[in-house]
Amino acid sequence: MTDVSTAPTLVVGLGCQRGCPVSTLLALLDQALEAHQIARHEIKALASIDSKRDEPALIELAQQLGLELTYFSSEQLAAYEPQLSHQSQIAFERTGCYGVAESAALALAEQLAQAPAKLLIPRQKYAQATLALAGAA
Q1: In this predicted structure, what is the pLDDT of residue 3?
Q2: Of the CATH numbers 3.40.50.300, 3.40.640.10, 3.30.420.180, 3.90.180.10, which one belongs to the domain with range 9-136?
Q3: What whole-number distance in Å separates Cα of residue 54 and Cα of residue 88?
Q4: I need a surface site. Which of 1, 13, 22, 99 has the fewest CB within 10 A?
């Protein structure tokens, strides 16, 4: 049994196009977790940008997984720009930050763990969505 206090705080950051189906988000999540041998129950929370607060698929995904979904403003997310694996000009034009999934994952992992976070799964793009996973010890 792993000691919970040493287990990293794993957080999934998500970005998606309007109207993206929850099945797309779930497929992307499971694919990324499987590729990195991470179990769904190890994920502590989900994060995205506040402009997606009313996105049905994100809300539905959080409910299906029984996880809390936290939103950050583009200003909060912009602080993580130096840590991003990929800087998207399109994302910046649409949201004011260069990477929603990675920035949101880093922001929430850091907030929950009260420690610096790092990207464990860099931005994964799939159909209408992006996903990243960050962890903080």
Answers
A1: 43
A2: 3.30.420.180
A3: 23
A4: 1
